Write the structure tokens for this entry.
Amino acid sequence: MGKYVVLKCTSCGRESEIAWGKEFYVSSRGEEKIYGYPEPVSEEAKTRGISGFWVDKVCKSCGEVIRESRYIEDPTDEYAEAWVNFPKVDIIEECTSCHSKDILTLYEVIVGEEAKIPCSRCREGKMEIKKVVND
């Protein structure tokens, strides 16, 4: 039951998605996959349980979206239990592309910081909010 924002470049039209609190599970192959809400997306997801949450950040210097995987201690198929155990400590503190420490969370983007994010593709435009979704 996360939230995400779709950003769109004012110049080239490129779109980026920034998620916060999107549940994932770890598949039998060791891959992080969307868990689903309000129901798990598959029987494997339900069996394996919510393993953690994706928290995206965006770099104000280069516009790169950085995904942080925050694992909970014990996977569970109960949403409330998973959210109670949501890891609140930031893991990523700098951009993985340009190494800037000037990175924004989804909530900073929503309150007006998006106008300061450059497009990571064309470098000419700025990103603006196209839509905000509670998932």
Summary: The two ends are 5 Å apart (CA to CA). The first strand starts at residue 3 and ends at 9. The longest helix spans residues 43-48.
